[in-house]
Amino acid sequence: MTPGRHTQGERPRLALTAEGRWLGLAALVLLAVGAALEAPGIAAFGAFVTGLLAVAHLAAVIARHRVSEVAVRLTGDASALKLWEGRASSLALELTLPPTIAVYALELRPSLSETLEGRLSWAEAAGAAEPHPGAPPRAAIGLTLELRGRRLGDAWLQGFDLTAGVALGLYAVRAFSPCLVRTTVLPLHFGSGQPPIQATRAAADEQADLVHRDKRGFGMEIRELRDFVVGDPFKHIAWSASARRGKLIAREFESDLQLSVWLLVDCSPSMFWGPPGTARIDHALELAADLARTLSTGRDRVGLVLHDHEVRHLVEPGRGSAHMMRLIQALLEVPHLVHDDRTELTESELTLRVARWFEVHERRTFYLPERPGAPPAAPPPAPDALAGPSLGARAGPLSDRRPLPVREPHPRALRIDEQALVHACQERLSRRFTRQRPVIPLTAYALEPERSTLRAFARHAGLALPRDPTPRPGGQSHGLEAALQAVLSSHGHGGAHTLLSLSDFHSADDLDALRRVALIARRHRHNLVFVMPTGERGVLPAGSFVRRSQDARLMTALVEVAELRAADNLRAAQAILKPAGARFVGAGAGDSLAHVLGRLRSVA
């Protein structure tokens, strides 16, 4: 049977299999030969085969109505599954088939987010096996789905594309069975019970040169006793110790100044170039999570700022396990910034996508009746096209995944009750956040509250929105300036701090903004350290910024131009920021955290 793909949300579709097409072609040949040779026996046999196909078609039409009862459900409570980056985890499922359907072949394809890899197998532990042709169906069949996350953040299993062979295997019925499962991909060494990265604990104990957390001052806690030197206050002399040693001994105190380490994570479009798992943002998120985990073990506080051309989220400095959870939750939000200036999507298309999601998963429609005299509306759009890669990607290894064609009708072809749709989104979001607040406020995705609610629902329901891959001119320079201003206006600001910025400096070409950053750093005596994560060499976006071309030379030229532009921006940024005391450190994808911390200590 030729594998196919069903359009989610539509009624089950019927198609001839390869065997059915060959049988139909044979019937036509027999009829043609019988008519040409005036052989009634051959023509009668052709008519018999044609009638057999008609009976099979009638049986397939009847079976198509029963296929809508096919369901794939979780066997346990795993509606929110936790994964660790790069490691596989299994999900137990159960396929339920109606007893009145004779299934001659069965094929399932999980519909996963683009950041997930999945491999489906029939569960052997429950004694289940893949149905063979002609075998009577069973009430329940065990399935095992092995998932592997390639990027930190949330990912979703939306359901399964099902292709069932019916009518002696001559017809295939294609349907979609919704099965919504949200998975959270966590850093490898966060909460997994695994040993930390080599030399991480030693690096945390020896990083005094990086964060300056062990400073001499005028606090209440004694740091050490040392020999008196000229210039030390006389009130710091330890007379008892001086009498025992026969020389002047001075007491040295710890500083009461609370220093903070700020992680400035750049979320610009250029950081997302490349496939998930190999882009620069993946290395930056992993490095930021490891740095936050290592720095939080010290006595100083750690803060976080997420920015592109403006600040998207800020976590005030703090320490402890609860604060570490807040930092990780903020980092997991980076791949899901669906603000109106970060996505290539019109408001009408957004409304259609959200309405289609409700139609697929909750059987609720928000389409308004057609106006009298208006032309007939186009059929509802394919939700796998509307939902992007998360609803249309095929499961399997990365090498087997191919982008599916996207076909969307004109947004004006359908009229949707937007007020009822927004109310339904608000109701579902209120159930989602009954005990906890979202990291990004639900009203921060767009200026209009209704559009912001739709985008927030798309983010928390796994409805993928196309990301705008075009970098904004000077966006990273403006974002760095906005991040520094956010640090200055934060409640935890006070004194000089260490600022670790993770950025590729691809669009940091606004020199005036960089000069203001240098002046701010010098005026407030901030210790600026820029960590530049590197991903795959020559990775360009596959969206509207750079279209894929058959001409390899043109693609090579585009790659070289982008790399030269990024190198020029980096040299200009270094020329302006280095006189202010800033330091630049490269961090490759294969570097361990201990090596990165060693480089940071050497330049801090």
Notes on the protein architecture:
The chain is built from 16 helices and 17 strands. It folds into four domains: 186 residues, Immunoglobulin-like, CATH 2.60.40; 39 residues, no CATH class; 208 residues, von Willebrand factor, type A domain (Rossmann fold, 3-Layer(aba) Sandwich), CATH 3.40.50.410; 103 residues, no CATH class. 35% of the residues lie in helices and 22% in strands. It is of the alpha/beta class. Helix 15 links the parallel strand 16 and strand 17. The strands form four sheets. A six-stranded mixed beta sheet has the order 14-13-12-15-16-17. Strands 1, 3, 5, 8 and 9 form a five-stranded mixed beta sheet that branches. A four-stranded antiparallel beta sheet has the order 2-4-7-6, with no helix packed on it.
Secondary-structure-derived class: alpha/beta
Shape designation: elongated
Kindly identify the CATH topology of the largest domain.
Rossmann fold
Largest sheet features? 6 strands, mixed
User: Which architecture of the largest domain per CATH?
Assistant: 3-Layer(aba) Sandwich
Spatial strand sequence of the major β-sheet: 14-13-12-15-16-17
Provide the domain count.
Answer: 4
Cα gyration radius (Å) = 31 Å
Summarize the structure.
By secondary structure, the chain is α/β, with parallel strands linked by helices.
How are the secondary structure elements laid out?
Blueprint: E1 13-16, H1 18-37, H2 40-67, E2 71-74, E3 80-84, E4 88-96, E5 105-112, E6 116-122, E7 140-149, E8 153-166, E9 171-186, H3 200-205, H4 208-211, E10 216-227, H5 239-245, E11 249-254, E12 260-266, H6 280-295, E13 301-307, E14 311-318, H7 321-332, H8 347-361, H9 383-387, H10 389-392, H11 418-432, H12 449-460, H13 475-488, E15 498-502, H14 511-524, E16 527-533, H15 552-577, E17 583-587, H16 593-603
Parallel strand pairs: 3-9, 12-13, 12-15, 15-16, 16-17
Antiparallel strand pairs: 1-9, 2-4, 4-7, 5-8, 6-7, 8-9, 10-11, 13-14
